[in-house]
Every structure is written in C-alpha cells, then in structure tokens.
Predict the 3D structure of the following.
Amino acid sequence: QVQLVESGGRLVQAGDSLRLSCAASGRTFSSYAMGWFRQAPGKEREFVAAISGSGGLTRYARSVKDRFTISRTSAKNTVYVQMNSLNPEDTAVYYCAARSGFGAISPTEYPYWGQGTQVTVSS
C-alpha cells in the first residue's frame, strides 16, 4: 500500500508556470506507476499525465501535451508535474494516484489517491 500527499497548488496568472509535487510513503515507490488527474467544479475527474515505475515511459492528455511534464525521483519518493503556459481552463483540484502497471488513464484503474491540491489560474 502507498500513501500520497500532494503539494504546490496555488493561485497563479494565465501564462505562469507551476510545479506540483506528490510525496509517496513506503519503500516500494518504484514499483508503482503514477498518474496525475484533475477535477474542475461540476466536471468529472480527468487524466492529465502518467509515468511508469522506472520513469522511462510517460503519457499525457492531449490538452496538456507540450505544456506539462511529469517526472519522478525514487530518491525522494516523489512525482512531479511541471505545468507551463497555464490558462484558466487548467483550474482544478489536482490529484496524484498510484497503481501497479503503466498505461491506465481511467481514474477507476488507480486504487491509491492523494487528497488533492487546488490550482487556480486567473485570466
């Protein structure tokens, strides 16, 4: 089992950059594929990005590709998402999640979740 804690969310302006972090507990961090999801008010939770346990494979939603970068470091048991060129449509609560096996984009396929961190982008 793994516990996840996100941080880094805040209010920013359109065009700004922001990096979110997700710290994981446990000694088997590298065995989990990690994902970032987001949920805006009144909308369903949606996939943002995922990274394999080794960090060698990544996958992005079309809406964030070329603007967001997911990465991870086993030394700190942490996964990041660097978000550039933010726009108001990126406003949401951002969640990290963990699962065994890379490639899933449905929230239902991730059994472990953090509590979320709010990102608000003003125009």
In short: The mean pLDDT is 96. Residues 33 and 52 are 4 Å apart (CA to CA).
